Amino acid sequence: MRLTFTVNGRRRGIEVPATTRLIDVLRVHLGMTDTKEGCSEGECGACTVILDGKAVNSCLVLAPQVNGRDVLTVEGLAGDAELTVLQAKFIEHGAIQCGYCTPGMLMSAKALLLHDPDPSETEIRMALAGNICRCTGYTAIVEAVQDAARAGVEQNGPR
Amino acid sequence: MAHAELLTPTGLGDLPAALAGMTQRSRLLAGGTDLVNAMRRDECRPDLIVDLSGVRELAGVRREDGVLRVGAMTTFSQLQVDPVVRQYAACLAEAAAQVGSTQIRNIATIGGNVANASPCGDSIPALMALDACVTVLDGDGRTSSRPIRDVVVGPGATSLSTGEVIIDFTFAPLRPHERSVFVKIGSRSAVTVARLSAAVVVECNPAAGTLSAARVALGAVGDTAFRDAAVEASLEGRPANEATAQRFAEACANAVCASIPGRHSLPYKQHAAVGLAYDAWNGLAVSPTCEPVWD
Amino acid sequence: MQELRAVGQTYPIHDATEKVTGDLVFGSDLRLPGMMCAKLLLSPFAHALVKSVDAAAAEALHGVVGVFSHLNAPQTPYCRSRLVPGEPLCVEDETLFAATARFVGDRVAAVVAADRETAAEALRLIEVDYEPLPPVLTAKAALAAGATPIHDGGNLVYEYDRELGVALPSRPDTLSTVTTVATQKLHHAALEPHVCLADYDRSGTLTIWTPSQGVYGVRTVVADLLGLSYSRVRVIKVPVGGSFGGKQEFILEPVTAFLALRTGRPVRLTLDREQCIVATTTRPATTSTMRTVVDSDGMLLDVEVDTVLDAGAYSGSSPEYALMMAHKLTRLYRAPHYRHRGRAVYTTTPVAGGFRGWGAPETVTSVEIHLDHVARRLRMDPVELRLRNLVSPGDIDPATGMSLGDARIRQCLESGAQAFGWSRRFSRVVETGRLRRGVGVACGGHYNGLLGEASSESSTMTLKMNEDGSVDLNASLHEVGCGSGTAMRIIIAEELGVDWERITTREADSEATPYDIGCYASRMIYVCGAGARATAAELKERLVQAASRLLDLPAASLRVGPGRVEVADEPGHGLTYAEIVRGIRVRDGHDMIVTHTYCNRSNPGSYSAQFAEVEVDVLTGLVRVTDFLAIADVGRAINRGMVEGQYRGAVQMGIGYALCEEVALDDQGRPRPGGFKNYHLVNAPDMPDVAVLLVEHEGDEGPYGAKSVGEIATVPTAAAVINALNDALGTSITTLPATPERVLAAIAELDSAGQRQTRSARRGPTCD
What we know:
The complex is a heterotrimer.
Chain A: E1 2-7, E2 10-15, H1 22-29, E3 48-51, E4 54-57, E5 70-72, H2 75-78, H3 85-92, H4 102-115, H5 121-127, H6 139-151
Parallel strand pairs in A: 1-5
Antiparallel strand pairs in A: 1-2, 3-4, 3-5
Helix pairs in contact in A: 3-6
Chain B: E1 5-7, H1 15-20, E2 27-29, H2 33-40, E3 48-51, E4 61-64, E5 67-71, H3 76-81, H4 83-88, H5 90-97, H6 102-105, H7 110-116, H8 123-129, E6 133-137, E7 143-147, H9 148-151, E8 152-154, E9 157-158, E10 165-171, E11 178-185, E12 196-205, E13 210-219, E14 226-227, H10 229-233, H11 242-259, H12 266-284
Parallel strand pairs in B: 1-3, 2-3
Antiparallel strand pairs in B: 4-5, 5-10, 6-7, 6-10, 8-9, 11-12, 12-13, 13-14
Chain C: H1 16-20, E1 36-42, E2 48-54, H2 56-60, E3 64-69, E4 100-101, E5 107-113, H3 116-125, E6 127-132, H4 139-143, E7 156-165, E8 174-183, E9 195-200, E10 206-210, H5 215-226, E11 233-237, H6 253-263, E12 267-270, H7 273-279, E13 285-295, E14 300-312, H8 318-325, E15 337-346, H9 360-378, H10 382-387, E16 396-397, E17 402-403, H11 409-420, H12 422-426, E18 435-446, E19 458-465, E20 471-475, H13 484-496, E21 503-504, H14 524-551, E22 558-561, E23 564-567, E24 570-576, H15 577-588, E25 593-599, E26 606-617, E27 623-633, H16 640-659, E28 690-695, H17 717-729, H18 740-752, H19 759-762
Parallel strand pairs in C: 1-12, 10-11, 14-15, 20-21, 27-28
Antiparallel strand pairs in C: 1-5, 2-4, 2-6, 3-5, 7-15, 8-13, 9-10, 9-12, 13-14, 16-17, 18-26, 19-20, 19-25, 22-23, 23-24, 26-27
Helix pairs in contact in C: 5-6, 9-17, 13-14, 14-15, 16-17
């Protein structure tokens, strides 16, 4: 099928088999390896991207579902600019150890802050419930998101 | 994954033609969360995929002619926050809120959940408790309406034929004195398949101070979710007090026990069913005078 | 505590920026020109002869480069955990592909193809004729008379019987207690699935890219197996998306190397999550029966343990692992007589292997649950009972003959009990409703390196300073996501007085970085970190000598300031590091570079006392950890925030161990279908707040007094949770995980025996 969609603000048109998963569209067909595959069944959240403003597991979405739509990945958060506040807070709070869950965590957090700029701790944890981290015990990640929310600029895009 | 043909109907008008081309191997693509997993695990190799994302008429919640109509392509995220569903079918909103993770809810659809017919599917008990009917469209463009219990007929099995698709669910909105709840017990508090679930709708009569017209569906036990008359009877005409809660809990435990005889998980589920029942009871939040404890 | 400039602050991990932008290239992100994709065909049977493998249809598929099985691959046996040639306790019983499949998940065949879809299609076309054999699914069944032998020589892989001290004559006023604790197979659940790339080029060099904890070990096993010279096998460590021991043995490297060699193409082999769970390694399932004799004051007089460890289908590291279980108890407790018998046993189940803590969590879970049982029988506070028996600083570990060093476990326990409000919580009124709370404590001890196990231990590093004063460390570092690379930079920054961001480190590359055995036995900080400090100290001395020549002043008149060398009583008179390096380059033609081999001479204990509060729903059996405190005897935190972060992650793992994680197999030895769908990890909503308090006594020889963190952090966690659970319910749960079913069954057993006691009846006076 001819897949035409916007990824990180850039319009792309490529020919892919209809059964191609979005994660493979990104990683294999577009060479964008910033989105990671952890479990292939939508349980770990490492592959989370934002589709039309909503967090989804790219390992469970097929190419036809993305046609004409808008995808945001980690690489699109800051683009060529410096890091976004959210990314900076992740670094500042020690929310990164091995880094494999980080792209997915950032996208889930970004998706949350897009719709709810002032989430409670419980809401943050629930929003991240589908993102597994085996290194940090989640606390630093939650604190980073809280701090980013306080900084209040996520809704307005990157710095 | 193996190659498949793709059809993307652009609206309800195009849909029957696409359905008519389906074979037994063909699959409908709704949210994709079940289909993609099944394809990756080689559990199905569709020859044709009919992608429903272009059929806009299938998404959304409408209230028309005194009936609630929930489009099959409505996602669980949408159901979770929809004000009409929250007010007039709270158990469905609650079930939606407990499906998987945020990522899953953002793309998984109620139509897909019912068509997948997992015994643990969260939307099915809620739809049963609401006495929902399922509108089905076939390749000739004909629609029919069937009760949900006639659609979900076995574990992973529906009565849908090749080339039929669910287009929406209809049910009467809850009446002013009706309260509803959906609860589930899994292996952790969030992002878990149900090991036990229950949807309850019940009418509270402040004048009489009693409960009536109970509709209770149990899920994740037995081959499909089911309504249980004995459990419903345990509430009929009873005051909303601790004694009734206890009867209700016992009836739930008995119903669970009868539904999975000899199953390895029976001792656990029978016991946990009491917890499930109390969770449901607390969620209904009715005082002994049958007034809502909170709104 | 000494005043330090760099050590002890909080730093982000050194590659944080690459990680938040998704720029860091993991193994599965790497692409080589002409790279082929490999996929494995795994046995669906727990035990079966692989009678024939018909690959004709698969090979004929367009895009398939080769299909391999035992029929066309070497059958040379090897041991996946061998780090060095001649290593003892390595049983060579595994082959590249099984001629007899010995577990569901055993490698039967591999396909090399142009892409993943073609490889997957080819796998489907391979026809294997299996002749099923009887599965042997538990260690008990494997040891029974007449059990089907899984390997020639029977099912006992390794056995030991160690006795330390002398049995005391029995006395009348003592209490003998027996418990049997069973622990389960766990999946490491690193977010990054296993991956390996290999390329055998025309010069005859085999290059392997792997997220491994030991590149030199990979080289040893692969070169020996394939008959290659060590200098023709280059192993490059790529970033690791978590390991926890799962990437410390050599599981994919041998087969990937073989595929590259045989096809002459670069090959990448990846496993999906289900394959990672079953076909890599698991924490071993263990059963330990412990008998202790204590006097009326709770002093341990005699400890006797019998451990059976389920090694799974191949021996791997199980002999050593089983032995290490006997080394962990004496890290913690003193006893006049301690006898530990252990057996590692084959079963037709997933292979057991290295897993964070390496026998300490298994042993500690057993002893800490046991001690709580003893405390209840003595009606003594569990904290008090432990304080009577814990080791003290300077004690000798009878298992190794080495000093435990500045062992601060008592301090951890006492300060932890205080901070947690132990007495108040432990003596709280019993709850009788649906939700019941309880508290538990557990202590753990672990190692700082291989010394004691190994007779010597060292690390070689090269440090050079560039003309602008920046510094490059060339060492075989094995960063696994816990910030060891960051720690090295901090240590060097402290020693040299430079900014940590002006220091680079690199990952291990057997062709380019000097020898270090790898990330094992919690040696990164204590050994490698000390090595980094010593190497930096040598470079600093070299800078002083060079400054002396350049300034034409005696070295004794000079001192080191931040980033410069200056005259001791004339601080303005001196040279920056950059000036020194430029100076000697130009003048003397010398380079500012040192290579240092640090020989480690000690192996103290690292310790942690952990306190848990749980809430149990007695109707559903679900358990929530509602509060958690970890006290960490770290010596000195190098990167404070990372220590806390490691502890929190370790507690997440320990809670899963206690309550919900298990690689469960059915009666045919098959795992549950699905990856994380059925292997549940603690997620964000269920993770409690974990308070971490550090005890920093700086009493040992690690860099600036630092000791290991990563493994000890998870050692006592599961036991603390189980002890809290038993406290809440009055039960004696001794089988992990304490699933809802087991919780309800334990409650039912209590009820039916009429044994439910009030909390005050269960316990005696509390500890203050």
